[in-house]
Amino acid sequence: MEKNKALLRILNAINKRTPIHYQVPNAGKFIFNKIVPYIFIYRVPDTGKKDKMIADLAKTENASIVCKEDEFALEEWIKPIAESLAQEFGACLLIETWISESNQKDDILLHVGQKDILPLAEYFERNIRMETAELSVAISKDLQIPKPENLPSLFSKKYLQNKQILLLGISIKKRYIDYEENILPLLMRTYRETLAKSLSRLFFEFLRVYTHLNATAQKINVHQELTPMMNEIDDALAQESKKFDFLLMVTPLNAHEAWLQFKKDKYWKTPKFLYRPMHVDPDLVKRRLYNLRIEDIYDPTMAYIFRDKRTELDSMITMLADRGKEDFLHGSLQVFGNVSEKLYNSALALLMMTEPETTSSKNEEWIGPSEFAKMAKEEVKFLQQQNQEFNCPIRIREDISGVMVNRGALNISKEYKLTKSRAKALIQHEIGTHVVTYFNGRMQPLNLFSLGVPGYEELQEGLAVLSEYIVDGLNNDRLRIIAARVIAVQHMLLGNSFTDTFALLVDQFGFKHETSFQIVMRVYRGGGLTKDMLYLKGIMELIEYLKENNNVHLLMMGKIRKDYLPIIKDLLQKEILIPPAITPRFMFPEYLDKWKEVKTKASVFKLTH
């Protein structure tokens, strides 16, 4: 009688599409955080010992059933529930997971007993392989309906065919437990996160292909909110990130004075750079970072994002502690990467196919920091027409070189001067790209998208440089500087001194002395910073992205990187993230032909004049 009442409650919840949690005392738990046409099933074997990895995996799903087989007749409950979901949505997908027998060869074996589910199983297998190469996966085409060893079948094959119910079995080789029954936490996490991410994509594919839901209904049904713990960790990471500004801390305070002294020394004596004092204790920052309980977050996407950011902050604070030492360069290679052979050859080719700096700009109108600041304020007013909350503090400073965006503020050196035509392009680079993505990131529920996900610089700088091209401001001189940065980084990595690299740019590639100094200063600052090679790398990657007809507007939603895009799309589908709030000028319809031109040219070499 009690069972009938409980089952009726669940069926009514499905009919009304209202979430329901139901606990069968000491036997099992039904969880429907959302009413969706799929259920994750885990029957705990008669031994009564629950597998932690599978139990934790169940917690990542919108709908799951975890029960003790010897105390609960699941087959009596699952049939009416699955039928109700199939009637409601047009089809129902059940995923039953269990621990394999010891003789299973692959880490993950997908069991298929119905012809109709084979395409889904193959899609699932591809996603697991794409997610991690560490786990082996295969498909077993079973003659019978999949089920764990020594447990009864939940359905007959004939029953499933008649009811539009699909059942996929997953048997797991328990490689994350050693011979002494100790858990191997990193390997267990790999299993759980790989399966959780792949299941999320599998369920969405099932909704799209097998059910009669439209796109809007799909979004409603996969909607997932940030938990209090996710918000807490995001806030904590943001607080630690805001305690130091990495680029300001590695930018010399005396860049202009150092240039004057270097010129006075006839370009042969390595300049001495001064930096801001460290105002944070690296050990305390690291302690706070690793006290965050990221491992308790069951959503694999969010856990990955947070761990990734924590690792980056750890590396950056270590680099700041190592300013002026050899270890600074090692940290830079970890955070920003190395120069590939392809990138170096591309930079070399750009320099060889373009002429050195000309004097034509002498005839152009030059402006100083005040006039440039005025142009920037006009651009801010233009963008505020889309959203009045948009803002960008603009400061003229003595302690920086050139221009720099810092947490949505535009900083301009008091010594800075440029041509008016160049200023138009730089406005799109700094405000249209860096400030707009900062603002759009702030509109997201996660701080990480305004502060920057780890490794965002490559895509960000590539987009910023391409914005210059879109508004007709990317000339050969600018492309040569971007290419020269790659050459300078590679030369520095080979062990050459500041003065050697300076001489290389002047003598071999025809750069003017002050231009060469600025390029080399940026590369050698702090002890060796490889970040500047990302400008050319980023624009080359972005051109490839455009050639594949990908959505460029998606790149404006925050400070993201290219391999985060599948994660971004997942979070947009779950409605955790929102589309960009502000569209920069260079993405307005009037520039559509220029974007088409980039796709047609499809090469950074064809952007030269």
The average pLDDT is 89
> How many structural domains in the coordinates?
2
Proportion of beta-strand residues: 5-15%
Biggest sheet, strands in spatial order? 1-2-4-3-5-8-6-7
Structural class: alpha/beta
How many DSSP-defined strands? 13
Judging from the principal axes of the Cα atoms, what is the shape?
elongated
Radius of gyration: 29 Å
Keywords: Carboxypeptidase, Hydrolase, Metalloprotease, Protease
GO molecular function: carboxypeptidase activity
Cofactor: Zn(2+)
Protein name: Tyrosine/phenylalanine carboxypeptidase domain-containing protein
Description:
- The chain has 609 residues and is an alpha/beta fold.
- It folds into 2 domains: 2-221, Aminopeptidase (3-Layer(aba) Sandwich); 245-279 and 322-607, no CATH class.
- The chain is 51% helix and 11% strand.
- It has 24 helices and 13 strands.
- A hairpin with a 3-residue loop joins strand 1 and strand 2.
- Helix 18 crosses helix 22 (534-547).
- The radius of gyration is 29 Å and the shape is elongated.
- Mean pLDDT is 89; it is low at 214-223.
